[in-house]
Amino acid sequence: MAAQTMPGGVSQAFEVFETEATGHAGAWMNATRALDEACALDPKTKNLAYLAVLAALRLESGIPFHVALAKQCGATRGEVISAILLSLQPGGHDAIACLPAALRAYDAG
Prior knowledge:
mainly alpha; AhpD-like; 67% helix
């Protein structure tokens, strides 16, 4: 069963995390910002790579949010598909389960 995603692309689980565990969520976001600043990749490449990792780990709930970020950075639909399918070798056939969520998110925005 896929995780429920809220209209803004953030999963319901993450939304609850942000509202019910504000201290932990703030610490998480600070770490996320620091890692983002340390990344040497350009934003589009970074977001496409992130999609590949999410698909390899079968973390479908994060796909819509990160597809939106990749698209904002200029990623094409074909690049999003390719990023998801990069996960085929390390993640196996099950990694394609994230492809429908990625395409729905891309086409919706």
